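Q: Joint fold for the lines below.
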Amino acid sequence: MSELRQNFATKEWVVIATERARRPEEMAHHRERKPLASFVASCPFCPGNEKLTPPEVLRVPASLDVPWHARVFPNKFAALSRDVQPTRSVHRSRRAVNGFGVHDVIVETPDHAQVLALMPDSYVAEILRIYKTRYDELSLDPRVALVTIFKNHGIDAGTSLEHPHSQMIATPVTSVQVRERFQTALRHFDDYGECMFCQMIEEELEEQTRIVMVSEHFVAMELYASPAPFFTHIYPRRHMASFGDVSAAEMNDLARMLRSMLAKLYHGLADPDFNFTIRSAPAESVGVKYFHWYLSVIPRLTRVAGFELGSGMFINTVLPEAAAEFLRKVDVESVRNGAAAATR
Amino acid sequence: MSELRQNFATKEWVVIATERARRPEEMAHHRERKPLASFVASCPFCPGNEKLTPPEVLRVPASLDVPWHARVFPNKFAALSRDVQPTRSVHRSRRAVNGFGVHDVIVETPDHAQVLALMPDSYVAEILRIYKTRYDELSLDPRVALVTIFKNHGIDAGTSLEHPHSQMIATPVTSVQVRERFQTALRHFDDYGECMFCQMIEEELEEQTRIVMVSEHFVAMELYASPAPFFTHIYPRRHMASFGDVSAAEMNDLARMLRSMLAKLYHGLADPDFNFTIRSAPAESVGVKYFHWYLSVIPRLTRVAGFELGSGMFINTVLPEAAAEFLRKVDVESVRNGAAAATR
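A: Joint structure:
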């Protein structure tokens, strides 16, 4: 029988539709991706075209084999502008803030055809360190309320440029969704004297069935009330409210786990379109005891339809426990070592 | 300059990205839709195949030219089952309810190639009356907490069968999203002694710029903080918490407006994929003074990307005022009368 499951952290309900359950491997679309060239002359993110982008904010410099490892610059078509003071206006039911905000693009590699899933861990760590550097800078700006870090991979994930990149948007307001989740976490803390995420992570580590990977500092798991197939959270095992609290050693560990997780999707589900995003405490709440940051990896294998839009509930046709088992079995390390051996 | 706007009813923030604004007419995809046959022998919803569906719950009977006008039956691949008692379980952080629920399919016409946008108003009214009959029945079931009525049109809107149909799902729980919106509306009522939707509708009717259509009983408008291009709400002008409160005269008026709104999308935006859904008070809250039901029409012209998933905020690249002006100008009545004249 199907089951409605409640997300412990958000209180959101999900229909786990086991009656029409699909095996995890059925979710691989195996669609044709056109092979990409490593360099595309018309791509504004390819090396040599640096003048086509706005001036750089940050760069991971060149090494022997590449002109640069990564570049950060303002989005040329930014949704928001950093050159204004946020000003609130209230006219009866119409409330607005002018378009203050920061919208960065992080080009992850000079190679147009590269993907995070296949990069060396050390390169992924460089990108995460860029996230943190910019996250820390933006969080200190008193005009900023929330910093959202995200990546769109593939058309169904909303990307418009195929060259590997991620983005970061700082807004002068916090969303109602973030606010409500904070309230829920705060109520739990006041009720039990502990972080609800820490409790949930401990229980999941005991239970094991939804765990995909565990390392010294992080754990990757399917949610008990997962809203979509292979929706995966990576949590720090130590309590941390903000992504800005990650230590250098933890960052290398996170890079290994993120790369490995993306490689499991790449090899196990035929390079699906996906988003990932970092959910961290709003700037004013860094250091709180009741919230726990995490990274969400969201493969875009299904469509949101009218029920989800109308009710705010989701229907998931893959059991989270089956998804976790499937992902555990995708052996990315031997693929990786095999490929490395083959090129030796 | 871009602007962040706050939805008065939900408090959700939307980035109205006027810096990269697109003209409304640019949003018409004009993609090739393969022409559909009026009858498809393998379609379980086509006439003659009635035995391929579960037994009917309801039918709008035959008239001279058709075997039946509409049929309602349980979804063959229902996410939930009506034959159980909802039972809650709580094991530490894992909370669930067994899969009680009702999942109906409403086949809207025997004609496989028909669309609501081009049907006679009286046929659309029949479908809305079916919604209400089933909505009323399901709302009385003490096991039901929330009834969601919705339609998926096209692949991007999540449909899997092309024969025109809508669906209705009754769940034993209310979503956190519906709960929070109710709380917000209740707080407004306690603060001002009035329905926040009634206030907003009155203001929008004065302001005019976001109104698409007004009739005796209903108003169709773009939201001030619209999360996506052409996202349109149809509100009853009289205060009503529940869709079940609609009178017979109002239902005919609603059918005309819904059909006309869908025709504006069909002709103005080249038959886009869309969802619509009815947001009504949860079953236990029928008759409250602080909530106002409405019908959302949601064209699926853009993709939700990482920013939206990570922040809970949306970026809309079409000004709601421009979308409203565009939709006002799509003259569906002369197209309709012209077509009628041409076939005379």
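Q: Anything notable?
A: Helices of chain B lie at 121-140, 176-192, 196-207, 248-268, 306-311, 320-329, 332-342. Chain B has a mean pLDDT of 93.
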